[in-house]
User: Which sequence fits this backbone?
């Protein structure tokens, strides 16, 4: 059968001999979407009549299944696609590439997440949330800007850092403890416009996976979570153009085959145009009319198949925010990432993925006139080589192993002064480091009901020269300076992070899972303010800053009802953290060469319970999530050394997401969120210094902001997808799918206009001389409209 | 940077709203506040007061009857006396801060003892100050718009780690803008810059004081500015880092001050 795919490598006989004693053969291949050639991730390959035996496609759509010699019927299944059954005679190793047709006519269903129906029960993975971008189109968002990062925050255990902040907190971790990967490249600052939008243009994205618990051993370097974002590959069947016009931005995406079915590309761009309207406000504020304030994004990706065994991907992202006032002041910041990736199928069982990754984040501030300009800049840049292998040992064991090496360059402060300026500002010296890791993990089916994932990741972080390295005493004074030459080792840290999880299926519809993981973080984001700002700076672990370490324990119960229509899960977690970072009171964190002396180190703990009920199919879909949690920190020099609630401590956090698909043309959606206000510090008294009133504080984070809640509503109206025409052959009227599809999206953010507190300040009333608490709310009701099209 | 934050704040204000709310607070026990800005100039004084309740009038209790002494490195003891009983203001008209000295403060008030120490190095003087007219970002050829800024210049002492504070007085009145700097990026350089926070008109008389301060005072005023701001871009609220031991709020400084005066033409 299919002799043209029969490929035998002599050097791979070694692998065969390991498992061939029972006369087993392997069927492997790729699954793609028949309409556009996109890889199908997490699709299921099952064997009819053999429950519990099967395989899943990896993130490149590749699967591998080893069975005893014999005849089988394989069932290929992916949500939203027609199931395909294929009969095979397995008397040799087979390659079987398949395309699945999307379920075009079943328009009444909106799947909230992709993947197999009972995957939540069967998989040993815990604390994983997956979102397919196209499935959350209907969820209403601020200004109608689809934002995958904001939608993720509606899931249990994931908390928004607040309005006007794209950051998020996972299970009590800080906003810098999330590893955000775009096609494998870390994105160091995921927010635009000071956090009102994320840098991820949903048009260019395919799916997002967030690991809150024990992340696979291939990921490391952050304490709390891994958000793995995949860009679309581009339509390999035909040219396709899509886009949207919104109130504050427009988007355009072009995708097309390079060679049909062999390769494709996608280019997607977005730009906001708030600044276009600024001149209109001329009468109100002259300064604003000469200001610029916008951002843009460009995503591009291309892939090409070379034969059956090799595939090459190149992808990149470039985005920038620009803020300027005439030509006197300019402030711009943004990320650039690039990934070159080579997939190679060594054998039916060994899949390899080699990536070369570049990532950069920088900001520049320029002020002054020509000749007397001063430019201040800062950046972090990574070069990363990563090698991953999937080895499908047999149908009980799947091994993942590999490693990576990253070269980090930190430029905390580069300062250029114009020629007319009589003095020179010294740069803050650069820092360099090498972060490397090796990992091995195995997913093992012990019995039909018991699956284990266990692995080990070894990581090393070495700070290297050149540079002057300071030592500090307990008061933060420099006591010693040592000069190191290029590539000279300054400090080195090693970390062993074990990952373990198990899934015990109680029956076909319920399971119990537990996991343990240890994570290390060697890079730290210094952000001393409430809001996330572009000038927040990343620093490496060093002789003064130890890596942060977290241990997390989780246990969960998963149960599906009504033929997997309703999914219920609950997870309990406990996390302890050491070497957590905080700041000396009033610390100076920007452009400070001795910034390490401003840091304090302590410990943290976070625990909680998460509940999720999700309805996945039907006209009415959505979920309810609830988290009850506590996050605390302890530092010798803060709050007299006693435990205090972390800023991200939220006792209650509720999200309700509902999507109602009335018919082919009309979808309604609503989301409601509620959470306990952030822990904040309010004054306990006041006094006078230099004739000014100064607040007196006694307790760190001893108060709460008022509870936050908000309702968002959305309506999406699709233009008719089908038109009636006469079939030239039969002369009958038939329904033909229109080439041009379009939709209108109306949304209302904060529908009942709740005045949620963004900040509370204590000021003197100028008239009465009385001190008052003043609450600032950012967004009251905000309606918006977006037009989307595709052809 | 400040302008940028202002504009962001303005953009936010289009959609945002502010209101005064009722917010009960747990009041702390009263604490002693010591303010001791001593210098090489005349009329040195030390203020001792107490904290008050957040929602009450900003009239604070003064501390009378305290024993206040300052000792220099030669063990000369200066005793500061309350000038008017009940004012909480303690003075010693003979006292002047000198270069390369160490000063120790001791305050005994209401049964508590507070101590502090502050050093001086050498006096870095101002080279000059001069007003310059600069175009603003709003200026266009049709509608020229300009402001007068005050530039200042000094030469940093390369052999010392220096911290500076500047005070600008316009027509005899302190402008309350807090200008702080250190020499981490400009060690040994001739530095020149305008005071971005103040603008002037023709005829204004301007006095600029350059205060040579120590690290602890720099940290105090830096953290004062950073922790007391209302902006969400500023740091977690906290008390400024005091250099006084014994549980008092405030600071003790021994400053070397150089002054320059101009009338804006």
Assistant:
């Amino acid at each position: 059968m299919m002799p043209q795919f029969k490929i035998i490598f002599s050097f791979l006989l070694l692998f065969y001999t390991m498992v061939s004693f029972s006369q087993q053969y392997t069927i492997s291949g790729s699954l793609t979407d028949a309409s556009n050639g996109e890889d199908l991730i997490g699709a299921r390959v099952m064997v009819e009549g053999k429950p519990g035996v099967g395989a899943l496609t990896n993130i490149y759509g590749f699967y591998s299944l080893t069975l005893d010699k014999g005849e089988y019927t394989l069932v290929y299944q992916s949500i939203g696609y027609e199931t395909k059954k294929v009969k095979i005679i397995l008397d040799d190793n087979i390659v079987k590439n398949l395309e699945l047709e999307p379920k075009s006519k079943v328009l009444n269903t909106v799947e909230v997440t992709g993947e197999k129906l009972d995957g939540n029960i069967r998989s040993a993975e815990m604390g994983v949330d997956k979102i397919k971008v196209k499935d959350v189109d209907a969820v209403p968002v601020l200004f109608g800007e689809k934002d995958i990062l904001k939608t993720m925050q509606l899931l249990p255990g994931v908390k928004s850092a607040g309005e006007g902040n794209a950051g998020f907190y996972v299970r009590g971790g800080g906003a810098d403890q999330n590893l955000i990967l775009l096609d494998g490249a870390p994105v160091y600052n995921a927010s635009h416009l000071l956090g009102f939008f994320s840098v991820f243009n949903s048009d260019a994205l395919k799916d997002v996976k967030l690991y809150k618990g024990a992340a696979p051993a291939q990921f490391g370097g952050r304490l709390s979570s891994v958000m793995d974002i995949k860009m679309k590959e581009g339509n390999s069947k035909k040219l396709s153009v899509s886009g949207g016009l919104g109130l504050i931005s427009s988007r355009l995406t072009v995708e097309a085959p390079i060679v049909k079915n062999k390769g494709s590309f996608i280019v997607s761009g977005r730009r906001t145009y708030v600044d276009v309207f600024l001149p209109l406000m001329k009468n109100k504020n002259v300064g604003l009319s000469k200001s610029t304030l916008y951002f843009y994004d460009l995503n591009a990706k291309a892939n090409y198949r070379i034969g059956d065994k090799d595939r090459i991907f190149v992808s990149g992202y470039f985005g920038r925010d620009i803020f300027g006032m005439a030509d006197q002041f300019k402030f711009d910041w943004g990320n650039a990432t690039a990934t070159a990736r080579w997939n190679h199928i060594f054998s039916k069982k060994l899949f390899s993925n080699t990536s070369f990754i570049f990532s950069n984040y920088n900001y520049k501030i320029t002020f002054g006139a020509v000749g007397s300009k001063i430019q201040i800049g800062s950046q972090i840049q990574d070069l990363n080589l990563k090698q991953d292998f999937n080895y499908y040992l047999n149908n009980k064991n799947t091994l993942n192993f590999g490693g990576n090496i990253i070269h980090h360059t930190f430029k905390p402060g580069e300062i250029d002064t114009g020629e007319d300026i009589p003095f020179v500002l010294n740069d803050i010296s650069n820092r360099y480091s090498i972060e490397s890791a090796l990992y091995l993990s195995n997913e093992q089916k012990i019995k039909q009901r018991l699956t284990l994932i266990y692995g080990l990741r070894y990581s090393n972080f070495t700070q290297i020269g050149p540079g002057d390295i300071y030592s500090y005493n307990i008061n933060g004074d420099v006591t010693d300076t040592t000069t190191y030459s290029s590539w000279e080792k300054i400090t080195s840290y090693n970390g062993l992070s074990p990952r373990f999880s198990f899934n015990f299926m109680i029956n076909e519809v319920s399971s119990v899972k537990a996991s343990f993981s240890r994570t290390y973080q060697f890079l730290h984001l210094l952000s001393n303010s409430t809001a996330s700002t572009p000038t927040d700076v990343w620093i490496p672990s060093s002789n003064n800053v130890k890596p942060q370490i977290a241990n997390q324990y989780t246990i969960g119960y998963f149960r599906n009802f009504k033929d997997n229509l309703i999914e219920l899960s609950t997870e309990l977690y406990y996390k302890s953290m050491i070497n957590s970072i905080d700041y000396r009171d009033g610390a100076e964190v920007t452009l400070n060469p001795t910034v390490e002396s401003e840091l304090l180190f302590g410990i943290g703990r976070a625990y909680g319970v998460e509940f999720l009920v999700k309805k996945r199919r039907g006209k009415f879909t959505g979920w309810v999530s609830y988290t009850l949690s506590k996050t605390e920190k302890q530092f010798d020099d803060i709050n007299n050394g006693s435990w205090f609630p972390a800023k991200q401590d939220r006792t209650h956090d509720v999200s309700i997401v509902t999507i109602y698909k009335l018919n082919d043309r009309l979808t309604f959606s609503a989301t409601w969120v509620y959470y306990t206000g952030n822990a904040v510090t309010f004054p306990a008294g006041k006094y006078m210094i230099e004739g000014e009133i100064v607040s007196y504080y006694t307790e760190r984070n001893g108060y709460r902001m008022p509870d936050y809640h908000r309702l968002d509503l959305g309506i999406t109206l699709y233009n008719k997808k089908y038109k009636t025409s006469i079939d030239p052959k039969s002369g009958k009227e038939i329904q033909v799918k229109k080439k041009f599809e379009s939709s209108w999206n109306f949304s209302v953010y904060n529908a009942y206009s709740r005045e949620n507190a963004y900040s509370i300040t204590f000021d003197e009333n100028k008239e009465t001389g009385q001190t008052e608490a003043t609450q600032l709310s950012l967004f009251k009701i905000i309606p918006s409209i977006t037009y989307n099209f595709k052809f | 940077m400040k302008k940028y934050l202002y504009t962001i704040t303005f953009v936010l204000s289009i959609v945002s709203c502010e209101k005064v709310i009722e917010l009960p607070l747990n009041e702390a026990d009263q604490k002693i506040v010591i303010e001791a800005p001593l210098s090489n100039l005349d009329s040195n004084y030390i203020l001792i007061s107490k904290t008050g309740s957040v929602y009450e009038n900003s009239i604070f209790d003064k501390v009378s009857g305290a024993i206040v002494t300052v000792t220099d490195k030669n063990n000369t003891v200066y005793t500061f006396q309350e000038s008017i009983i009940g004012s909480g203001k303690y003075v010693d008209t003979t006292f002047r801060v000198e270069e390369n000295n160490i000063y120790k403060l001791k305050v005994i008030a209401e049964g508590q003892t507070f101590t502090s120490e502050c050093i001086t190095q050498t006096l870095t003087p101002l080279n000059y100050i001069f007003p310059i007219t600069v175009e603003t970002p709003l200026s266009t050829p049709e509608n020229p718009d300009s402001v007068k800024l005050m530039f200042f210049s000094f030469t940093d002492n390369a052999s010392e780690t220096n911290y500076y504070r500047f005070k600008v007085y316009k027509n005899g009145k302190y402008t309350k803008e807090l200008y702080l700097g250190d020499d981490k990026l400009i060690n040994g350089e001739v530095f020149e810059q305008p005071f971005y926070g103040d603008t002037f008109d023709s005829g204004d008389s301007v006095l600029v004081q350059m205060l040579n301060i120590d690290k602890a005072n720099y940290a105090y005023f830096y953290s004062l500015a950073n922790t007391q701001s209302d902006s969400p871009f500023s740091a977690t609220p906290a008390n400024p880092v005091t250099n006084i031991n014994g549980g008092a709020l405030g600071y003790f400084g021994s400053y070397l001050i150089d002054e320059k005066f101009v009338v804006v033409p």
In short: Chain B touches chain A through 75 residues (CB under 8 Å).
